[in-house]
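quick one, 485 residues, struct below
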Amino acid sequence: MLVIDSLLRHQFYEPGRTAFSENGREVSYRSLFEHAERIRNVLLHHGVRPGDRVALLLARGIDAACCIYGTLFAGACYVPLDVQNPALRLSFIIGDVQPRCMIGHGERPQWCSSAVEWIDINDPEFFEDEPEGDVDVIYRPGPEELAAILYTSGSTGNPKGVAISCRAIDAFVVWSSTTFGITDTDRIAALAPFHFDLSLFDLFTSVHCAAHTCFVPQSLTLSPAKLVAWLEEMAVTSWYTVPAMLAFLAMRGRLGPDRLPRMKRILFAGEVFPLPGLMKLADALPDVELYNLFGPTESNVCTYWPVMRHRLADLETIPIGGAACNAELMINDDGELLVSGPCLMSGYWQNGDVRAVDFPWYHTGDRVSYNELGELLYLGRMDRMIKSSGYRIEPAEIEVVINRFEQVQCSVVIGESDPISGQRLVAVVVGQGVELDGLRIYLKQNLATYMQPYRFVQLDALPLLSNGKVDHRAVAGMIQERHVE
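---
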């Protein structure tokens, strides 16, 4: 794996260079290597072998990053879990991915099966062994061996694991480092959680280039002015994040041409950036390069568009541009974007094994077309997927949970346009005397925070098409007319 070789080189030739920093704590490239080796030794002690999965119940930060590299050193595949997910969702993922062990803080969670080895990262006895200090003991995976499994929302009502190979990560690392000119002088702001594919840039492109990754304090995400001040204080040069966060900063972060003097480039992905927000950001930071990156988790980044400020006023929608990561692109007769190439996933993980999809072309489910300049335009989803604040959400997963609530007969979840998050979730429920306060509490216990509907609409019945299926377009129209509960 390219990034492992890069880390081994940096820890030898530039041992004192900072790799990661978080809330005043720093680890050098030599220290990152040593931490990863200790964790590798612990994993081997617990029976982890090449090809095994290691689940990480850790928040974004230095500890989790070291565990990811330690897992890769052991030849295993890391599975980052969202620590804010409800127990039922986490339990399903553990049952599906069947990890050899799980690393977290403190005692084993009640939902974690006893068949999974639990490792408390705070327990010093697990880290008593000194690292070998020998790069020859580091496992060197083949290109098709799995490096990560990232769980996303699934249309069946359960999350699905996207299996990502070393080959796919290497393709992204080479493309992103070259395309954006990342060097060892860069300081990269890291805000994406590790179960989100944007984190591959923060974790791997940065290390490949010997850059310094600065983990953004979570407390700053609700205070745009303080976040801008932190970016200045940390002298951040590069940031890969979601449009919702950038729109928030553009509106309330007191940005202007005199702010963020060290920032060279901002990359964004995960959802459509509303044009007014992008124009405001582009005007506020005239000297910062902006890039629109596009692609589902299954392909990571497959297209990109360098933002051309002089064209923004005349655009109706922001182009997603041309091919990235050596991807091959094709539009089928239905207008759907198909992707092939080294950036593609290995398949979906199900019940302890990879289930390959119909390669070499992956059907993204995204409707696209070319403009007169030969740039791809995103026209929406072929299916019902919703993208909100960078998260990919399958409405069916939320509907399955809502329909389990005793008073609900049926439900539909719709994405409502929002200038900040892109889309907000609206739940339409049918049932006699549905107690919405009780439903909200129930959903908080069973769904991730980003999957909570921000409002509910009650109907006597759902509108149907002639074939008996729900008329989702009619539902979307009705929620604008009905009283919001």
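DSSP finds twelve helices and 26 strands in the chain.
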